[in-house]
Amino acid sequence: MPVTTANLGFPRIGPRRELKKALEAFWAGRIDEGALRDTARRLRAANWARQRDAGIDVIPSNDFSLYDQVLDTSVMLGAIPAPYRALGPQDSLAVYFAMARGTRSDQGGDLPAQEMTKWFDTNYHFVVPEVGPDQDFTLCAAKPLGEFAEALALGHRTRPVLLGPVTWLLLAKSNQAGFDPLTLLPAILPLYRELLSRLRAAGAQWVQIDEPALVLDLDERARSALRTAYAALCGPDSPRIMLATYFGGLADNRELALSLPVDGLHLDLVRAPEQLEPVLDGAREDLVVSAGAIDGRNVWKCDLAALLDRLGPAARARREIQLAPSCSLLHAPIDLALETELDPQLAEWLAFAVQKLEELALLRLGLEHGPYVIADELAANADAIAARRGSALTNDPAVRARVAEVAPDWTRRALPVERRLARQRERLRLPSLPTTTIGSFPQTEAVRKARAEHRKGTLDQAGYDAFLRAETERAIRRQESLGLDVLVHGEFERNDMVQYFGERLSGFAFTRAGWVQSYGSRCVRPPILYGDVARPRAMTVNWWRHAQGLTERPVKGMLTGPVTILQWSFVRDDQPRAETCRQIALAIRDEVADLEKAGARIVQIDEAALREGLPLRRADWNDYLGWAVACFRLAAAVAAPETQIHTHMCYSEFNDIIDAIGAMDADVISIETARSKMELLDAFATCRYPAQIGPGVYDIHSPRVPSTDEMRALLVKARGAFDPGQLWVNPDCGLKTRRWEDVEPALANMVAAARLVRAETG
């Protein structure tokens, strides 16, 4: 029973975010393309060596990206909209980064970035492919071939990773209404065939093709596309193909997957452990089954003994089995060894990417040679599992008692939304189309320097607070000067919208180097949510009070919602997520009450990740949406009718959950719509959304400054779908990652656009 270990993908950013620093230096003109590519080569070489040293037999290549693997695939296939093609050759960085980030007028053009959205149910963002009926495709195979050759020269015969053609087309959007991107499959299959043939000629024995779409609810057209694709791709000119599925179970797509003429099939046995036996029962004898037994998306140690018991029969029954993480380790921090300040008890419960690969190597030894070979490691692992299960760190009786007290009326506002909005209008006295921002302002070099000095102890608390107060006042004055109607304090005291709150709540721990990629150079450091959650004291009231004391205009209280805190943390897996979310909701509820008591007239509770947490299978939606919406309402419903509750949601498709968004019962929702040119508003207009809405008119993920006319056109489009009295005017998202040099002119244009449309509507 040969057992091998395989990895599906490794984090790209580097242990100390070397890729982020190189990208931002390149974009700023401080380094040239050669230096950027040298950094990328060094990171790839280190990644391959790290995986080899951890005991991995099958190491991936082409899992590295300078921005996003979906964008890489679009460029590889030549799916480049015409405006970007003029910037250079198909595989040039000028074209690549223009599609990802747009261009500014001082860069020789003024192009918006392509649309971005979430990668399945993760916080990773991908650049949405854009195709049309007249699409021309041209293969550019330099990246997958080059990185395979690069690894081979270093002594690693890797398994190149490709995004599957059907998943890529299902993720694509059409530039013409009514056009189905799947009809382009016959046009791209010859390119995939050619690439596979060239990889085989270069020495690739296996290729991993990712088709995570196989865990979705598929219609017959998508299933037929998968049959057509793999009938064409599996042949004598191709390497052996490992078809990778992840983020869920095959379920009703199991027979389809097993019918495809591929050589291997990867299963996510963390999200769907129940699928192993049915797949083994139906699989061809020669099919290599890849068991995704180690959680690629969380940080907890696996239970080695339990996995040996579970996988032992499969290993004995199959001709060949592979052990792998459930998905690419892109979503995990790199190395626990870099964490020197974690509580040692907590650290014993954790495994980051490197440690997960080491767990795979141990599992292989145990399966091939028997548990006695790894007896010491099994004993240490069992001790860690038992210690976590029984630790007082994870269980707070007071928190559990309070959750048990929650009654249905805790989730209901005192008045319906129409009557609340009338009272709020009377209290706030805002103009029509009021202007505001989502919350954060640029975290400048000075802000980052002060935070670092405070962390090191070279700037004391009094000095740091004085700096933050001065920075907040500057932000208030800038907003007043720009003419914004509702202000924010700027969030200069916050390193991250989740981490800031986690640091002030019990049950959370934080890493120093636990970074994961969100998109491009944007990295986040998710908190580790290991125990019961409570709020010892107010978290934001003093900063809000300071900001409001500087101005007569209303300043929003800014909070992160319970679902987003849950989604953007590494969450404990020893109790239902819904239970953990209720605990967080009660803590945020207390903060809402304290802000209102301090005089806040508007409180924003961001639920950027509500749609992200939606299960991939429709049958599971009602359960999730039930507790997720209830948790938001539990946090918000403590507010009086006169207090206006805002929420914000990031890149999401809202059509399918619009009823649930309405059920959240917020007074105002702001959403990202600039990249989609207001397409996402359709769902709100169709359902006659009863509350107010702020469609983003300024794409903050691009360095360009949109013109007044551009934003006015978006507002006119929104006005066509909504009563002007329902509309707010705001950027797509927070402005933390931007520069003041870009932010101020963009916001000035936004305010001017709002005033123009305000005048036009009377």
TrEMBL record:
Q: The Cobalamin-independent methionine synthase MetE C-terminal/archaeal domain covers which part of the protein?
A: 433-755
Name the InterPro entries for this protein: Cbl-indep_Met_Synth_N, Cobalamin-indep_Met_synthase, Met_Synth_C/arc, UROD/MetE-like_sf
According to the UniProt record, what class of enzyme is this? transferase
Q: Which Gene3D superfamilies match?
A: 3.20.20.210
Enzyme Commission (EC) number: 2.1.1.14
**GO biological process entries:** methylation
Q: How is the cofactor bound?
A: Binds 1 zinc ion per subunit.
Tell me the superkingdom of the source: Bacteria
Which residues does L-homocysteine bind? I438, G439, S440, E491, D606
- Identify the metabolic or biological route this protein is part of: Amino-acid biosynthesis; L-methionine biosynthesis via de novo pathway; L-methionine from L-homocysteine (MetE route): step 1/1
List the molecular function annotations (GO) for this entry: 5-methyltetrahydropteroyltriglutamate-homocysteine S-methyltransferase activity
Q: Which residues form the Cobalamin-independent methionine synthase MetE N-terminal domain?
A: 5-314
Binding-site residues for L-methionine, renumbered to this chain: I438, G439, S440, E491, D606
Enumerate the active-site residues: H701 (proton donor)
Required cofactor(s): Zn(2+)
The protein's annotated catalytic reaction(s) are: 5-methyltetrahydropteroyltri-L-glutamate + L-homocysteine = tetrahydropteroyltri-L-glutamate + L-methionine
Q: Which Pfam families match?
A: Meth_synt_1, Meth_synt_2
Keywords of the record: Amino-acid biosynthesis, Metal-binding, Methionine biosynthesis, Methyltransferase, Repeat, Transferase, Zinc
Chain sites annotated for binding 5-methyltetrahydropteroyltri-L-glutamate: R17, E18, L19, K20, K118, R522, C523, W568, E612
Q: Where does Zn(2+) bind?
A: H648, C650, E672, C733
As given in the record, the signal peptide range reads none
Function summary: Catalyzes the transfer of a methyl group from 5-methyltetrahydrofolate to homocysteine resulting in methionine formation.
Family indicated by similarity = Belongs to the vitamin-B12 independent methionine synthase family.
**Which PANTHER family does its entry note?**
5-METHYLTETRAHYDROPTEROYLTRIGLUTAMATE--HOMOCYSTEINE METHYLTRANSFERASE
Q: What is this protein called?
A: 5-methyltetrahydropteroyltriglutamate--homocysteine methyltransferase
Naturally occurring in which organism (per UniProt): Pelagerythrobacter marinus
This protein's gene is called metE
